[in-house]
Structure formats: structure tokens, C-alpha cells
Design brief:
The chain has about 280 residues and is α+β, with helices and mostly antiparallel strands. Among the domains are: about 110 residues, Beta Barrel (Ku70, Chain: A, Domain 2), CATH 2.40.290.10; about 55 residues, no CATH class. About 25% of the residues lie in helices and about 25% in strands. The protein has five helices and nine strands; from the N terminus they run E-E-E-E-H-E-E-H-E-E-E-H-H-H. The chain has a seven-stranded mixed beta barrel. A two-stranded antiparallel sheet has the order 3-4. The relative contact order is 0.13.
Length: about 280
């Protein structure tokens, strides 16, 4: 069983429910360390003063905010205490909103909320109420000395807390250049919709794998055994400018149709795999 990252309670209105916070994601990518090429010994980092060129100990370090190039305001521990909000062990739900109204760019890292000791019934009540309402809670939580905005929603039997970005953390769309709708021709739109339809499939997350990670692990295992790695070669698409969009769309459609015909020819129907139904179709941007 994983170890809880944080223990506290979740509160909405006058209701408080003890919960435990667990990471909902796993990092399977291999970790690397920098080594000295000569003898393969690990390399340590040093904190070096740019002016003196000498190493600096932890006890001689302070934190500074660079307000101009090379100009800093030094902040002390007392300064950080002055700015800090009250530390609590509570996830405070402020509002319940329609998830379709929340831009997908706000969402970051998910965590599982597990009921604390003796709170199973209250937990189940909150979970089922959120599920039936079709809404998500917008909450605030203090984690690692920083305040975070978070979404409280349900997936299956779990209440999931997803860290969110604050509004001022999103780059403004007006700062970028995007083509207007009138730049699209009706014929091109119809062809593009046909291509999307031909590529449409059921959501099966297991079929999307990290090929780079798999190749790295194959290389690592092969080097441990003193062998040459056997990697699956993948055709790389050439980078080229699209001269005729309609022609490229048409070629894509024809290629998809011929590929589908080859795959289905002589193949026996595959057994259907039962998967747990997903609670929501997803958040709308």
C-alpha cells in the first residue's frame, strides 16, 4: 500500500470528512545521473558564487527576487512567514461548478483522496452526491507550504483531487496569432471531417504506450547483457510543406482506407475486452 502524502480533511459547508492524499500517477521513465566519463563516478553539484568563484555552504545562502537584471531583493524567513497564508490541514471546497465551463488548460496533477479512519460513510455520501450533481468542486489546499487551487471530482469509487492553475498562470490567447474561420474552404472542411471519421476509435488508453521509454529500457537491458538492442523500426514521416491541402487530405483518406482493408482482410473477429466505464466523457475546453 502506498504511503499517504498528506493527511487532513475535506470540508464543504459545515461538513468535514477525514481524508488521506495519494499520488494518482506513476513515473516509469528511467532516472539518470551524470557521471565522469573517465571513471564513471557520479558527479556532485557545487553552489558557486559567480563573483568570487568559490563554493558557498548552505548556511551562507539566502533567497533573492530579481526585480531587474542583476538587482535583487533579499527575503528572510520572517518575510516568508509574513506572506504565508494560514496553514491548515483542510481541503476547503469553495464552489461547485459545471465541468463543461472549465477550460482544460486549468488542470494539472491528479491525486486520489482516500477516506480516513471511520469516515467511509461520509466519504461515500460526498462522492455519490458529487457524482449525481454532475458538477465538480473548486477548492483550495495548502500543500508543501504553498496554496493551490484544486478540482474535486469523482471517478469510479474514488474522489479525485486535481491541482489547478490560477487564472493569471494561463497565457492570453490574444498574445498569439491564429487563423480565422473564414480561411477554411467548405470542400476542405468536408474532406477533413471524413479523415477524422476514418480515424475515429474508442478510447483505449492501454494502446498508447511510451515508445521512447520502452526503447531506452531495451537499450539498457541489452548493454547490461553486452548485446545489441533489438528495437522496432518505425517509419519517420518526412517534414514538408503542404502545397495542396485538398490533395494531401485526399491522399490521407485513400491511405487510411487501403490500410484498413489490409488489416481486416482474413482476420477473425477479436474478442471484445470489457473495460470499466468512465464516469465522464471529459472536460470541455
Amino acid at each position: 500500500m502506498a504511503r499517504a502524502m498528506w493527511k487532513g480533511s475535506i470540508a464543504f459547508g459545515l461538513v468535514t470528512i477525514p481524508i488521506e492524499l495519494y499520488s494518482a500517477v506513476r513515473d516509469h521513465r528511467p532516472k539518470f545521473r551524470l557521471l565522469h566519463a573517465k571513471d564513471e563516478s557520479p558527479v556532485h553539484y557545487e553552489r558557486v558564487c559567480q563573483r568570487e568563484g568559490k563554493s558557498v555552504g548552505w548556511e551562507d545562502l539566502v533567497k533573492g527576487y530579481e526585480y531587474e537584471k542583476g538587482q535583487f531583493v533579499v527575503l528572510t524567513k520572517d518575510d516568508f512567514k509574513t506572506a504565508a497564508v494560514e496553514k491548515t490541514k483542510t481541503i476547503d471546497i469553495l464552489d461547485f461548478v459545471d465541468p463543461k465551463e472549465v477550460d482544460e488548460r486549468y488542470f494539472e496533477t491528479p491525486y486520489y483522496l482516500q477516506p480516513g479512519k471511520g469516515s467511509d460513510r461520509a466519504y461515500a455520501l460526498l462522492r455519490d452526491a458529487i457524482d449525481k450533481s454532475g458538477k465538480i468542486g473548486v477548492a483550495k489546499i495548502i500543500l508543501r507550504d504553498a496554496q493551490h487551487l484544486a478540482a474535486v471530482e469523482t471517478i469510479g469509487d474514488a474522489i479525485v483531487l486535481t491541482m489547478m492553475r490560477f487564472a493569471d498562470e494561463l497565457a492570453d490567447l490574444e498574445d498569439f496569432r491564429f487563423p480565422k474561420a473564414e480561411a477554411v474552404r467548405p470542400g476542405e472542411m468536408n474532406m477533413a471531417l471524413q479523415l477524422i471519421d476514418s480515424l475515429s476509435a474508442k478510447w483505449e488508453p492501454e494502446k498508447y504506450t511510451d515508445e521512447y521509454r520502452d526503447n531506452l529500457m531495451h537499450v539498457i537491458q541489452a548493454k547490461l547483457k553486452g548485446k545489441k538492442p533489438r528495437l522496432t523500426e518505425r517509419e519517420t514521416r518526412p517534414q514538408a510543406e503542404v502545397v495542396d491541402l485538398m490533395e494531401r487530405l485526399r491522399a490521407s483518406l485513400e491511405g487510411k482506407k487501403s490500410s484498413g482493408a489490409r488489416k481486416t482482410a482474413g482476420r477473425k473477429p477479436a474478442a471484445t475486452k470489457k473495460t470499466a466505464p468512465r464516469k465522464k466523457a471529459g472536460r470541455a475546453a
